[in-house]
Write a structure and sequence with these properties.
- The structure is a homodimer.
- With about 425 residues, the first copy, chain A, is of the alpha/beta class.
- The first copy, chain A, has three domains: about 170 residues, Molybdenum Cofactor Biosythetic Enzyme, Chain A; about 80 residues, Alpha-Beta Plaits (2-Layer Sandwich); about 150 residues, CinA-like (Maf protein), CATH 3.90.950.20.
- In chain A, about 40% of the residues lie in helices and about 25% in strands.
- Chain A is built from 16 helices and 17 strands.
- In chain A, strands 2-1-3-8-7-6 form a six-stranded mixed beta sheet, with helices on both faces. A five-stranded mixed beta sheet of chain A has the order 14-13-15-16-17, with helices on both faces. A four-stranded antiparallel beta sheet of chain A has the order 10-11-9-12, with helices on one face.
- In chain A, a hairpin with a 2-residue loop joins strand 16 and strand 17.
- In chain A, helix 2 runs parallel beside helix 7, helix 3 packs across helix 4 and helix 11 runs parallel beside helix 16.
- The radius of gyration of chain A is 26 Å and the shape is globular.
- The N terminus of chain A is likely disordered.
């Protein structure tokens, strides 16, 4: 097959703030931005985080603009002294500041709506660099600024997640699409595969991988209970990309068969919601060691009130017996982390929450509370439906957070399995 | 005051993986690493994320090693083809690979313990670059490799969070402390301040900030309902740092008084746990719009079972009335998002979960479901105790996730306020 390496519009993201470097804040912005950009065919080739230090910011901006066509900055544009992105950009683009009436009106409107008074620092938010085009930030007071040089674009945005998201969706991405004639089409397709570890799956797919055309890449993204298998096509021709990916997907279906649980790369909580809505069913939760995390995952999806009735976080044995009706005898005899208890929790949730199916978890999240028979990471999970209850014991890790995440995912995978196999 | 700019051991973190750039995975590793390094006095000056592309990795490694003394890599060392960190490091350090018996034994042990069989790809994990010192990864199969050149150190670690954490804690940080004689002491102190917006607080602190010695910096980290105020001292003299910070803290106490709700920079869920344990009290939750997120925050803390009895996620009105005993009349008359309903939810939780205090939330998380009277972002929050119930209505944003996070934080801040002011 004839193949050309094509020039693409490289995008780099620079996040600014000491709090990102010393770990006081986890950067969720750049992941969201990466996804939103990729969806529109902009390739993110690098992300850099620097502190509120002018020298470091200048160096990061300058080298990013040398490599990339688009550089997106977030953070460091609040009203306080520690935020120096605006003055740094003035230095970099060698310009001064001027007062923008348009920005001032926006700031005034936001303060008026929130019932707070303006002050000197908030008024200064209306000072903008001469070299930029101002983009109004309808979601907050700090304006977004757009710079162009030698056909390249640099945009400075607030670091506040919902302001950044509003700006990216409504302003930045539409303008970037207009500004750049993209000459490369990028297509991702991800399948979820169960029943294989990462390397066992790679061995199964050795021949498949060797036969892949050079413009398609395969990546393995292991997760609790499954491996996400991602095919990526990079080509100038959109039709070619769709055709080639469809062909490779078909090959994977033939090799992996039932091991593929879905070809839609959606979070498990979305897949659960879609399956429940399709069947007109409702669900509930009874959580011990996952402590509300499963309910929280399910309710993170807009519209989940159509199928999620509620949940009980039965952290203490009292709540397990008093609210969910678990037998106190079984609690004493088998302990809270046991098959009879987790099954009664799931069945109790069905009854108390009046739903069609329910998941339950009971385990030892750690770091303490493990025993020789039930070490930290031991988790019982049950799924109850009108047709009965299934349960399984898992052994995860010694790390609390990891155990909660894994148990939550496995519980929802078990529920999805019940929903998919038409047992409901 | 006499002041010297001191040379410090600069550390950079490079995270590797296409999944980080296209946003399939949120990078929580580098925040954890930043915090762990800062605690030990290593300054993280930059973080870079690149894809599984050799050219980009080489460039990122080379420029990081030019700027920094320590470069820590995570990711890209799994057994599959898309992981190329090891081969890239061989190119960069101009060396070959050899088979390490020691690593092989570790891989074999892990496979044996997990009951899985080895295969060709997992055996290959024992191939290590000639130029490195191998550090055993007791938490997983991919070995950690340590390279030195011109007095600088580069370490390549797995991207799997619990493996990276085990390695950093038990191997990397102790070795870095031994290898580098740190000549700069870094001290952070963070206070939580309520009752001010970010800029109003900055104006209040104008004089304070102007009088700060040049080796102390002040940063404003706004959060829902509060501003975290961080003082950072950078100096050669540990004693000087502690003294200077203590002096500035005392000044802030005099300026801000009761607006300081804590001087310990701990997550709100930790502060709640400490306050409950100190008073020998238990708590519970009744969540509607936060969907289990508050329970999940509370139970993320090890040992929370000592004070958290459980929670009810009453997403549907049925669960609000049937499980928590909210009056169906009030639900109909005032709607679920109302003062009477949220107060009855909190009191219901006290009774049903048999706890000493309870928080309840009911609101419109969005993006849909808003009305003119109750737009998206309207959230009622109540705290019930033996002494009665307090409640408050908030107006957050139009973004679902943000509303859940803000409502959860505000609910816990309201509870902390009740606990602090000895009303319990």
């Amino acid at each position: 097959m004839f193949f050309l390496y094509l020039r693409t519009m490289n995008t780099e993201i620079i996040t600014i703030g000491d709090e990102l470097l010393i770990g006081q804040v986890i950067d969720t912005n750049s992941a969201w931005m990466g996804e939103a950009l990729e969806r529109e065919g902009f390739k993110v080739s690098r992300k850099t985080a620097v502190g509120d230090v002018e020298e470091d910011m200048l160096d990061a901006i300058d080298s990013a603009l040398k490599r990339a066509d688009i550089v997106l900055l977030t953070g460091g544009i609040g009203p306080t002294k520690d935020d120096i992105t605006r003055s740094t950009l003035c230095h970099y683009f060698d310009c001064g500041l001027h007062f923008s009436d348009e920005v001032y009106e926006n700031v005034e409107r936001i303060f008026y709506n929130s019932g707070r008074g303006m002050n000197e620092l908030t008024r200064n938010q209306a000072l903008v660099p001469d070299a930029c085009t101002v983009i109004q930030n309808r979601a907050g007071t700090a304006p977004c600024t757009w710079f162009e040089r030698d056909g390249k674009v640099l945009v400075s945005m607030p670091g506040v997640p919902h302001e950044m998201k509003w700006l990216m969706t409504n302003e930045i991405i539409p303008r970037l699409k207009q500004h750049f004639c993209r000459d490369l089409f990028i297509l991702h397709k991800t399948m979820w595969v169960t029943g294989f570890g990462e390397s066992a799956l790679a061995i199964e797919l050795t021949d498949f991988e060797n036969e892949l055309p050079s413009f398609i890449r395969l990546a393995y993204l292991p997760q609790p209970g499954l491996v996400r298998l991602r095919l990526t096509a990079n080509t100038q021709n959109e039709e070619e990309a769709w055709k080639a990916i469809a062909l490779q997907q078909e090959k994977l279906r033939q090799i992996l068969g039932n091991h593929i649980i879905t070809e839609e790369d959606k979070p498990i909580e979305v897949l659960i919601g879609e399956a429940l809505l399709a069947k007109g069913l409702t669900m509930g939760t009874a959580e011990s060691c996952t402590g509300g995390h499963i309910a929280s995952m399910i309710t993170s999806i807009p519209g989940s009130s159509r199928y999620f009735k509620g949940g009980v976080v039965s952290y203490s044995n009292d709540v397990k017996s008093d609210v969910l009706g678990v037998s106190t005898e079984d609690l004493e005899k088998h302990g809270a982390v046991s098959q009879p208890v987790v099954e009664q929790m799931a069945k109790g949730a069905l009854r108390v929450l009046d739903c069609d199916c329910a998941v339950a978890t009971s385990g030892i999240a750690g770091p303490d509370g493990g025993t020789k028979e039930k070490p930290v990471g031991t988790v019982w999970i049950a799924v109850a439906t009108g047709k009965g209850v299934v349960s399984e014991c898992y052994h995860f890790t010694t790390v609390r957070d990891t155990n909660v995440l894994r148990a939550s995912s496995m519980a929802l995978l078990m529920l999805l399995d019940q929903l998919h196999h038409n047992r409901l």
